[in-house]
Amino acid sequence: MEISERLIDLLRNKAKTAVLTGAGISAESGVPTFRGNDGLWNKFNPMELASIDAFMENPKLVWEWYLFRRDVINKVKPNRGHEILVEMEKYLPEFTLITQNVDNLHREAGSENVIELHGNIKRNKCLNCGAPMDDMDIDPENVPTCDCGGQIRPDVVWFGEMLPEGAIETSQQKTVESDLFFSIGTSAEVYPAAQLPVIAQRSGAYLVEINLTPTPLTQLADEAFSGKSGEILPMIWQAVLEREND
Ligand code: OAD
Question: What is the 3-state secondary structure (H, E, C) of the chain?
């Protein structure tokens, strides 16, 4: 695998960097992705499980789905891809990590500043007033309620919902300011996240993609790596560190 001098230089010179991750970065940890042959949305209908209408109609089914996914996520650990992004955050003074993942694995790996565009599956909130409701046992047969009377729901973004306040605005700002932008393990199909790599490149950033399969970004990217993020990120990082020692 060839890594361009340009990319190594940008990292060595501590370019302002922003990173967008998607389900692919957690695939090597054992978290299923959404699209593709083995993707969750290939087997399940998102509108029946991940929408406000679905929850209003059948909170038990929706909660069972999220408790099942929580259970999967509770059993997995961050992988080398997550770990390299922790290294990058320590090395680069201006570094922004934006994720579409709800699995909390970036934080578990040790990333400190993470913009979670689609929320976090480990947290709960009130459907009505939005108050955070953590550390609560959920019985899907009897969904608990907040003091205000609203039902408790997972703190994730469902189809048709707004992103968490400020999350996309901050992401866009950091994207525009970046000189280097990585799109990692995302199919780049879900907006507004999918806009970010395009905005980055239009604003002058060097756009790098890491993905197992081609996406709408692959042709556009200044540099596209085809393979697993848990293997490619360590290779890029090793090349940067080797140059440090030159
Ligand atoms: P997708 O499932 O759409 O895409 C995952 C991407 O990761 C695909 O392009 C795969 O080729 C790639 N991939 C798989 N394994 C990989 C690996 N080891 N290394 C690198 N790439 C790999 O997931 P997202 O793009 O994250 O939203 O999906 C975006 C949103 O759609 C999700 O946040 C979720 C979903 O509906 C909500 O729930 C709101």
Answer: CCCCHHHHHHHHCCCCEEEEECCHHHHCCCCCCCCCCCCHHHHCCHHHHCEHHHHHHCHHHHHHHHHHHHHHHHCCCCCHHHHHHHHHHHHCCCEEEEECCCCCHHHHHCCCCEEECCEEEEEEEECCCCCECCCCCCCCCCCCECCCCCEEEEEECCECCCCCCCHHHHHHHHHHHCCEEEEECCCCCCCCCCHHHHHHHHCCCEEEEEECCCCCCCCCCCEEEECCHHHHHHHHHHHHHHHHCC
For residue 112, what are the domain limits?
A: 1-30+78-118+163-246
- Encode pLDDT of 200-213 as tens digits: 999 999 999 999 99
CATH (domain of 139): 3.30.1600.10
**pTM for this predicted structure:** 0.96
The binding-site residues of ligand 1, defined as CB within 6 angstroms of any ligand atom, are 22-24, 27-28, 33-36, 39, 46, 50, 100, 118, 157, 185-187, 189-190, 210-213, 215, 228-230
* 46-80 pLDDT per residue, tens: 888 999 999 999 999 999 999 999 999 999 999 99
